[in-house]
Amino acid sequence: MQRTPVDPKSLRILLTGASTGLGLAASKRLLETDHRLVLTAREGSLHRFAEAGIAESERVRLVALDVTSKQQRWSAVEQTMTAFGGVDALINNAGISYRSVAEHVTQRELLLQMSVNFHAPMEMIRLVLPHMRWQRWGRILNVSSVGGMMAMPTMGAYSASKWALEGMSEALWYEVKPWNIRVSLIEPGFINSGGFENVRFTGQSREGLSRVSDPYFTHYATMSAFIAKIMRRTLATSDSVGKTIVRTLERKHPPLRVPATLDAHLFALLRRLLPRRLYHAVLYRSLPGIRRWGLRGDFVHLPQPRTRSGRTKLRKSHP
Fold it and tell me: What positions carry a catalytic annotation?
């Protein structure tokens, strides 16, 4: 098989999570170019392409893809190879987000968070790298988050998945650069969209938000309201971040990290300028309603030696 030069103006692009939110915005931006596209979504979400006015054509394929399925990951890459002869660019956008304090996330929920946001993108990359290495050209864009550079309370599992994605992507940047394969992390912060309404709750975090007596009720109530307020007021939109994705994709020498919103630039600057101890102190004091945190749920059942009467006492526990 003879190598043919890659045409930067007509790339063969595979995009995951393309039917809603940021993925749909990026899809629409890409449709304005001459790139050839394989747009993927879970089978139950494929109808959203038609609702958005997106249909298959000579340069567009719509493919069902559950990124947690090994078979469907392989099939999506295979269909891209069959339709266009290769994959020049992979955009890993599919993701989920759990809202939960660390104490309320179970192993099953944590594994799902990591599977979608970290494991799946890495497996997609493993599938496309052989062709990219062979043609000595490629672009890999992993959609990360401000949560990949800083952690917020009640979003620890999400941040863990994005930090893992950032760590592997940074290592990958070094590993594949000799083949002219460029790796970039797109780091959006708050986006003015309804995305915050799609956040998932664990079984315990949903109960914690609904029960006023729960020790973490104030954490959930204040953070949920705070995030919703900022996302409604920010100037950044899915379309503006989608534009950043396309612009990064088409750059000759794209950077490893691309802050995609104003607050992402701000938080990156704070991390560089402030001593770490001061940085965390400032952010802690800035948390909404922080003085009310920890005022609930002081009395809990703890293992105790039994009394002479055979009963177990209630001990007061302080955070």
Answer: 19, 144, 158, 162
Packing angle of the helix pair 262-273, 276-286 (nearest 10 deg) = 140
Question: How far apart (Å, rounded) are the C-alpha atoms in residues 205 and 228?
Answer: 17
C-alpha torsion angle, residues 280, 160, 18, 175 (rounded to 10): 100
Checking DSSP bridges between strand 257-259 and strand 299-300, what pairing results, if any? unpaired
Residue ranges of domains in the chain? 12-295
pTM for this structure?
Answer: 0.90
Write the pLDDT tens digit of every residue in 174-206: 999 999 999 999 999 999 987 767 899 999 999
The model's pLDDT over 222-244, given as tens digits with 9 standing for 90+, comes to 999 999 999 999 999 999 999 99
Structure tokens of 234? 């920010």
Which fold would CATH assign to domain 12-295?
Rossmann fold (3.40.50)
